[in-house]
Amino acid sequence: MMVLGITGSLRKDSNTKKYVEHCLEVLAGEGLETRLVSLRDKQIKPCLGCYACVKEKRCAQGDDDFAEMLALMEQADGIVLGSPVYLSSVVPQMMSLLSRATFVAHWNDKFLAGKVGGPITVARRAGHNLAFSQLLLWFFINGITVPGSTY
Q: What angle do CA 18, 136, 93 make, to 5 degrees?
């Protein structure tokens, strides 16, 4: 099994990256293959809502890094999403990736469904609740199982 960690922070050595790396280290310790990808060096344009993915079974915007990221997400058995929280929300780069992935996956046999996922949000003050909810809802909308936990 392979777990893909995606960090949305644009900072080189961000706290978000450190938390996602720690999560992946724990999973690797359990024998899972892991891979970390940062959106820091990626260009992901926002979804145009054009519905070209319905006919073409892929996103019509081909001049960015989305196809590469989507292929990694499709291959993964698990996905960990990490985002810093600015203005009480997930960063735009992450939301661009997630909205486009949802559209393409939905029109391609819902290929994200059945995977396992988990959200990580990092903030100094307020905003965790909304950002965490955004990531949780993305997992749920796509049929991705989010394991429960206890304190």
A: 60
- The model's pTM: 0.94
Residue 61 CB-half CA count within 13 A: 20
Domains detected in the chain: 2-141 (3.40.50.360)
d(CA 71, CA 133): 25
DSSP label of 5: E
The Cα–Cα gap between 91 and 51 comes to 23
Dihedral sign, Cα of residue 115, residue 36, residue 104, residue 89? positive
Provide the Cα torsion 14, 131, 44, 25; round to 10°: 50
Nearest-angstrom CA–CA distance, 8 and 18: 12
Contact 106, 74 (CB under 8 A): no
**Tens digits of per-residue pLDDT, 82-141?**
999 998 999 999 999 999 999 999 999 999 999 999 999 999 888 889 999 999 999 999
- CB burial readout 92-125, b (16+ within 10 A) else e: ebbbbbbebbbbbbbbeeebbeebbbbbbbbbee
